[in-house]
Amino acid sequence: MPFPYKKLTEDDIAAIYAITDKDRVILGDDIPSEYYHDEMPEYGIFRPDLYVEVLNKEEISEIMKYAYRENIPVTVRGAGTGLSGGATCKYGGIMMSVMRMNKIFPIDFKNQTITCQPGAFLVDVQAAAAAGGLFYPPDPGEKTASIGGNVITNAGGMKAVRYGLTRDFVRCIEAVMPDGSIMQFSSNVVKNTTGYDIKDLIIGSEGTLCVLTEVTLKLIPKPTCSCTLVMPFRSLEECADMVPQVLALPFVPTAIEFLERELIDIVEKTLHKMFPVKEGEAALIVMYDASTKMELDEAVRLAAESALAHGALDVAIADTAERAGSVWAVRGAILEGMKADSVSQEECDVVVPRSEIAEYVKQAKKIASSYGLRVEPCGHCGDGNIHTELLRGKDQTDEEWHSATQGALKELYALSKRLGGQMSGEHGTGNGRIEYLKEFVGDRMISLYKAVKLAFDDKLILNPGKIIEFNYTSYT
Ligand SMILES: Cc1cc2nc3c(=O)[nH]c(=O)nc-3n(C[C@H](O)[C@H](O)[C@H](O)COP(=O)(O)OP(=O)(O)OC[C@H]3O[C@@H](n4cnc5c(N)ncnc54)[C@H](O)[C@@H]3O)c2cc1C
Fold first, then answer.
1. Which of 251, 322, 441, 445 is least surrounded by Cβ atoms within 10 Å, i.e. has the fewest?
2. For residue range 118-161, what is the model confidence (pLDDT) as tens digits?
3. Ligand 1 midpoint to CA 429 (Å)
């Protein structure tokens, strides 16, 4: 297919050197292969033509102006921990890393906000908030993701049940547009109905609309105490049935996760992280935060009683940081464990209404086994976001694996839709799910997506080929 993009010339390289610095640019085959993919190499391996580390918004603006004029594709790279094949140069061109722009500015206590550059690590933003006695709650599994990546993918994570998503904490955004102009979206205000809410469109846009250069995030008072409960059950389905029971209690849980014994065994065997509860074929992990010990004790008591009344084999209460740490360490290592225990993985990230979690799990297992696939549904069951991991066995040929996963994914997405769910709860579309999106959302929605993309990026130079694919000869 003929693409309208210009192949980088010596003049283009000289122009990028002039805007930045030779020491921050790597060319062609010298670019380390880690930049050819994100955490899911299965979703495409693409070598950028030029990799550059930018230091400020002015450099970004100059690069974008140049790329816009010369028709050169640009893809922004955060920490590269994405799970959708998003931060890759599908059509070559420039990969622009924002990881050196990692300043975290002092907390604005009057507004209870913190402002950061995009390359700050999530873990450092959380620590900066805590150092000021405040709390930044979004808690995706990967703490070394960049805060810019979190905002642009609208990262979810464990604590979404109580606190919400990254989106719920974004007050305002500064960004560079594909033509190089620098814009501010909203300001440090609590409400805003001024015009269309473009800030919210940018959150979750996966680097296809603009380059995030600064973000201001809401902070909240820190909970003073927390407790994690582990409820072993006979099956994952029983865990799923327990979720609405926990949600019906008068205390809002911070997190509700589930995992099967097989997955716990994988993490214990491959990564030597030991799960403290041995009984049961599956475990439901429930966490509560509270501002008083009395409130916490009451929440824990009610949840434990409810679990035992609904078939839990036991309830283990991890009420010290060390005990809770050993539970969450196993939960946090699932992806790494699965990678160590299989040749490759396919990541299905559907989200279904909470009322349908048990039905989804039951049907998903049937679908995967009808294709001869090993399946591990796990993860954020408290918000219906079930990571349905398909694992490739040693004996499967490329062809067997691809045709089985394609067939299974189609059925899993159709199942999610039938149950009133969505295709992706938090990992996004990127390059990895693009072929399924059109069928899921339909033609009218795709044309709306295209209109949005063109309104921001009329030359389609920013992260092209992600979320939606255009016919590049006619731009339709
Ligand atoms: C072990 C593990 C656990 C995870 N757990 C979770 C989880 O619980 N919840 C969850 O939501 N995700 C999770 N993720 C996925 C991943 O960490 C998130 O998607 C994260 O937000 C990506 O941030 P990043 O800095 O790595 O972005 P990258 O992977 O570098 O980029 C992701 C996308 O954002 C774009 N982008 C990055 N920075 C900018 C910017 N400044 N401006 C414009 N575009 C930009 C890129 O072009 C790309 O399309 C997990 C990943 C791993 C490996």
1. 322
2. 999 999 999 999 999 999 999 999 999 999 999 999 999 999 99
3. 12
Q: The CATH number of the domain where 265 resides is what?
A: 3.30.70.2190
Question: Which of 334, 353, 384 is where one domain is finished?
Answer: 334
Domain presence at residue 465: no
> Is there a single domain that holds both residue 237 and residue 149?
no
Q: Give me the CATH number covering residue 153.
A: 3.30.465.10
User: Who lines ligand 1 at CB under 6 A?
Assistant: 38-39, 75-83, 86-87, 98, 118, 140-142, 145-146, 148-150, 152-153, 155-157, 206-207, 211-212, 335, 426-427, 463, 466
Chain position carrying tokens 């050197």: 17
3-state secondary structure of 83: coil
* Pocket perturbation via mutation, ligand 1, pick of 90, 152, 383, 462 by most ligand atoms within 8 A of CB: 152
Q: Looking at this protein, which amino acid is placed at residue 24?
A: R
* Tens-digit pLDDT profile for residues 21-45: 999 999 999 999 999 999 999 999 9
Alpha-carbon gap, residue 106 to 114, rounded angstroms:
7
pLDDT at 376: 86
What average pLDDT does the structure give for the chain?
A: 95
* pLDDT in the model for residue 472: 76
DSSP result, 257-326: EEEEHHHHHHHHHHH-PPPS---SSEEEEEEEEESSHHHHHHHHHHHHHHHHHTT-S--EEE-SHHHHHH
Give pTM, 2 decimals: 0.95
Domain extent at residue 396: 342-431
